[in-house]
Amino acid sequence: MSIMVPSKTPALITPGRQALDSALHQLAGAVEHLGLDDETHTMLATPRRSMAVAVPVRREDGRVQVVQGFRVQHNVSRGPAKGGLRFHPGTDLHEVTALAMWMTWKCALAGIPYGGAMGGVAVDPAALTARELERLTRRYAAEILPLAGPEKEVPVPDAGTDERTMAWIRDTYRLDSGYWAPGASIMTLDDATARGARIAALSALGGSPMGLTVAVQGFGKVGARVAHYLAEAGAKVVAVSDASGAVYAGGGLDLDGLRAWSAESGGVSGYRDADALHRDDLLELDVDVLVLAALEGAVTEANAPGVRARLIVEAANGPTTPEADEILAANGATVVPDILASAGGVIVSHLEWVRNAQAGSWSNAEFDARLHDRVHDAFIEVRSLATARGLTLREAAHAVAVGRVVSDH
Ligand code: NAD
After folding, report:
1. In 52-162, alpha helices (H)
2. Do 203 and 379 contact (CB within 8 A), yes or no?
3. Whole-angstrom Cα distance, residue 318 to residue 19?
4. Would you say the C-alpha torsion 88, 321, 374, 210 has a positive or negative sign?
5. How far is the centre of ligand 1, averaged over its atoms, from the C-alpha of 294 (Å)?
6. Mutate to test the pocket of ligand 1, among 226, 242, 268, 291 (most ligand atoms within 8 A of CB)
7. Contact of 217 with 292, CB cutoff 8 Å
8. How far is the CA of 185 from the centre of ligand 1 (A)?
9. Is this model's pTM higher than 0.90 or not?
10. Which of 200, 285, 303 is nearest to 241 (CA)?
């Protein structure tokens, strides 16, 4: 009897593994640019602490299902680790490690004294009831206590989680320690991320987006808000997509109507006042600006040649693979990288910490002005380096961020 050995094992290369490969590739580029030695490279490529936990969740029918949870602290040399929490069925330790690493660079680039962390649970939150989700979240929070907790780090929302998830986590910490971990107050972090992405986009455009056409991949907490802010600034958002599909309206979408439809029906697909589009065709639309606000690995070598937008803004983490980066650069497109365009959340979270430490009170406008300066200044610094050294914005952003982490180590 012969044993069939598959010639390729693509199933072993998970999206998480691809994300980590991208993150390591980007790091290697910065290491080379900065002329760092092998030991430093290894130190930067290796997370300081990683944890995998089994999270039992009691379902409504009495069954106990076990799902995997992860928490990674990539680097703490610049300060306590900061990071999101993702609930997604495809999440694995590789993906969480990549996201923790990107968070380290994001904080360093924005000049924030935090390290990078990330958490994830391999579960589809839409498949659970609210009570099941609460039990799962609390159990996960209890399992990762050795790494997290109110005085070590408090997770913030990411894909598949929201402020309610964070409230369950804070409450679990409180029950454990008796210490009340305050939540974000002035604006939600996904809103801050979206505002940061708008600032990054406008900085790259060198002014107003008035009349420019925009397509947005991902109509979740971040993507829906970026669409809103760009439309508010004068752009015409002609297409958006989410996991359910994509919709297009050449004259500009009614974003309020679409948000209401999406909340009611669970996705943008089927929205009446727009044309239906194949989900992935959105990426290749003839628009001026493409905002990536879904998940990693959205633009790959397979679809990058078809991308027609001149400006790509990464509100999501890791949406463009290194192979796609090369194709986009060769085609003359500008990519505003994730560690710059999606840093708004962590910047505002640091601003809140500064405000609280000073026992001061800042208005929304003051927060906005400070957020603007941080993102815009980081953009100018990155673009100057990119221009001087002939780098892409991503290469320059990683060189600045990695250099800062190394000098603080
Ligand atoms: P979310 O879960 O609220 O939204 C994700 C959206 O992407 C959903 O609309 C989903 O349907 C859509 N999506 C998934 N697969 C898709 C596909 N193949 N094509 C099109 N759409 C698809 O998540 P979020 O919090 O908005 O996060 C989105 C991205 O932004 C993630 O990369 C996250 O890491 C990053 N980010 C989030 C925050 C935050 O504060 N929430 C901060 C920084 C970065």
Report:
1. 93-109, 130-143
2. yes
3. 7
4. negative
5. 4
6. 242
7. yes
8. 22
9. yes
10. 285
In the structure, what pLDDT confidence band is assigned to residue 178 with cuts at 50, 70 and 90?
Answer: low
Phi/psi at 76 (5° precision): -125, 20
Measured between alpha carbons, how far is residue 96 from residues 18, 113, 273, 303 in Å?
Answer: 12, 21, 38, 25
Query: What integer is the mean pLDDT of 101-128?
Result: 95
Question: Which residues on adjacent β-strands are paired with residue 214?
Answer: 237, 289
Q: Please state the rounded mean pLDDT for residues 158-170.
A: 91
Please indicate whether residue 334 or residue 3 has the higher confidence score (pLDDT).
334
Q: What is the pLDDT of residues 295-322, one digit of tens each?
A: 999 999 999 999 999 999 999 999 999 9
Indicate if ligand 1 lies below 6 Å from the C-beta of 189.
yes
Q: And the tokens for 379?
A: 């953009």
Six-digit token pair at 362? 């800042």
Separation of 211 CA from ligand 1 center, angstroms? 26
- The answer to whether the beta carbons of residues 95 and 71 sit under 8 Å apart is no
Contact 399, 385 (CB under 8 A): yes
